[in-house]
């Protein structure tokens, strides 16, 4: 039996002594106020046993982690039709780059870079009655937690400085790859990124990707094949131009956000979330990545 609790405790105490914690994201002004000394980790295994250490119950802005959740809802609603609007190839580019979008005629490389997630947001707007409310309810349902909410201060903060996303949405619109108007799509996208959750809630939200599609409440929204595809996208695209490094060091499908969160999972074994607000140069949590490398090394568990 692997002693997850002992491993998480060691990871947490090592994180506490780390002097190089990376830099907190500042292009969304509200995020720059977060204390970079925070560190939390939570793991849930396939038997629903939970292990945790540090600030695992403190909520933070999930940011790009929400892209996997919006993708899963859009995929469950329109199926493979989605892939005519967004591709499934890693970009090798930072999350907010636009150059490939123009070269490839308005079809984003994948749904986990900003441009791809903006297309997914457009799909949700066209297919949900009350998009923001319905999306939030979906997240609450799969997590089995009604306390999850948007942090509207973060939404407003990003709206004021989201110039690259505004550019991306306009470029997508010029290629007819948005059905709704640019402002409505961006408003939805900025809300979804501003969902706040803690590490414990995140592992529960992602439980279904670890558990062949069955969520915490035993409900199924996606087929096993759709879950396989989403996990493949997390592995190849979840960390942008650091996806190779994450696979190399950690060896799990996962997703990061500029709020400092990372969720990763080993199918049929466990789902783990870390939070440390300081980011490395590629925009992924510095200590989060190091913690997950230690976890897969100490347990000997990864997909490889
Ligand atoms: O659109 C943005 O730039 C942010 N709302 C999300 C970016 C993000 O989290 C990138 N992740 N590492």
From TrEMBL:
Biological source species: Cellulophaga tyrosinoxydans
Domain of life: Bacteria
Keyword field: Acetylation, Hydrolase
InterPro entries with a match to the protein in the record: Beta-lactam/transpept-like, Glutaminase
Gene Ontology terms for molecular function: glutaminase activity
Subunit: Homotetramer.
Gene3D superfamilies attached to this UniProt entry: DD-peptidase/beta-lactamase superfamily (3.40.710.10)
Protein name listed in UniProt: Glutaminase
Enzyme Commission (EC) number: 3.5.1.2
Family: Belongs to the glutaminase family.
Catalytic activity line of the entry: L-glutamine + H2O = L-glutamate + NH4(+)
TM ranges: none
One Pfam assignment: Glutaminase
GO biological process: glutamate biosynthetic process; L-glutamine catabolic process
Residues the record lists as binding substrate: 64, 114, 158, 165, 189, 240, 258
